[in-house]
Amino acid sequence: MPTLTCLGAAGTVTGSKHLLRYGDTQLLIDCGLFQGLKNLRELNWEPLPVEPHGIDAVVLTHGHLDHCGYLPRLARDGFAGRIHATAATRDVAALILRDSAFLQEKDADFANRHGFSKHHPALPLYDIDDAERTIRMFSPAPLHREVALPGGATLLLRRAGHILGAASAQIDAGGLRIVFSGDVGRYDDPVMLDPEPVPEADYVVIESTYGNRRHERTDPVEALAAVIERTVQRGGTVVVPAFAVGRVQTLIHSLWLLRRAGRLRNVPVYLDSPMATSASELLHAHPHEHRLPPQDYEAACGAVTCVREVEDSKALSASRFPKVIISASGMATGGRVLHHIAAFAPDHRNTLLFSGFQAAGTRGRKLLEGARETRIHGQWIPVNAEVAELPMLSAHADADELMRWLSGLQRPPKRVFIVHGEPEASEALRERIERDLGWPAAVPRQDQVFNL
Ligand SMILES: [Zn+2]
Asked: Ligand 1: distance of its center to the CA of 83 in Å?
């Protein structure tokens, strides 16, 4: 009898890892890092309850760090199978994993130089060699075509919207069909294509990031313009922490639409994230995976100034001229956006604008909850700037859109498992599925084993 165990993204939005066992085969769906709260991040250092060399293959739904960021550690600890994902996901994951390995090495080095760590010497979770080896283990799978998995199972990927390459995974194993939603994107998104419906499944594992929320139906481009215009009128700068892959490209496109309509003409826009610049180039490499015609895409990128050098980034922090700075990381947990927050948060004329989901324990979440100071690089920074949120710019479906995606099923599944959400969000979606659809639904606990 196949079993399903969630080794992450149970009661939280990070650390996605779902173990499917059938016969003698063990398949891992997603292999993400835990982020946010310290007790979650510490889980990245705990051994998995399954031997990495005993995992036969990994299926990766998309390239965000909370879905792929543990892969190099898995490989370092003995995993030697294939990683099945779309070609675009492989390219996104390659960017993200190289960056992550660089940060892991940098953090360990910093801890060693400053004696921060309990461990001597402090070691990175993985290094660049582990990341490069992992990237070579990818086996690109086309959309809409069955691919063989170990143990006689098959995999079929469908578009999930969300970010470039993102897919839902349909796995036929042990006589059952199990569908993993991955992260579900928004419908009618200006950049990404709609999530595709899944007609049939025995079991569904669905995300619930916004399981208890409905995005405002106001035009996101207009809402973005309003925040920027009022900040510029005050003589201030808008700092937008953004996920390098996904949101950055949507923001750039929205800003270009506004410029084309004659708005924000004198407001320079800076993209201060080398990884986001590289991610934007991936739109070119995968023209069928999004809605933007190449000429629009080029014009949109031409309207922003890309900042590559650290010195130029620092000069931007020092400049008081009104402007928009888009920079990573999206939850303000690290990256260049930190020195922009340190520079601009103290002045009430400026705005910190969050566009994506902010996980519990992250600096972004604390700022949205009203923190009036934040500690950056060892210093307490007062927060007098406006702190704004535009969740309708998020790459995640809201509760109505998750229900719409589920309604693609033409017969009721045996059960729906609700993952990748904070407890209130997952519970709200569970209640709604049972109430509106009458389908049995459960919110798995970490490491809980379900017989399918
Ligand atoms: Zn994601």
From this structure: 17
| 3-state DSSP assignment of residue 325 | strand
> Ligand 1 mean position to 184 CA, how many Å?
8
Distance 192 CA to ligand 1 centre (A): 13
Centroid of ligand 1 to alpha carbon of 62 (angstroms): 7
Residue 351 has pLDDT above 80, yes or no: yes
Closest to 55 in 3D by CA, of 94, 10, 99, 24: 24
**Eight-state DSSP code of residue 122:** -
**184, 38 contact by CB (below 8 A):** no
Per-residue model confidence as pLDDT tens digits over 398-418: 999 999 999 999 999 999 999
Measure the CA–CA gap between 254 and 247, rounded to whole angstroms: 10
Q: Distance from the CA of 162 to the center of ligand 1, in angstroms?
A: 7
How far apart are the CA of 64 and the centre of ligand 1, in A? 5
- Across-strand partners of 151? none
Q: 129 C-alpha vs ligand 1 centroid, how far in Å?
A: 25
Residue 395 pLDDT more than 70? yes
Name all domains of the chain by residue range, CATH numbers in brackets.
3-213+395-451 (3.60.15.10), 220-393 (3.40.50.10890)
For 72-123, how does the pLDDT look when each residue is reduced to its tens digit (9 = 90+)?
A: 999 999 999 999 999 999 999 999 999 999 988 988 887 788 776 667 788 8
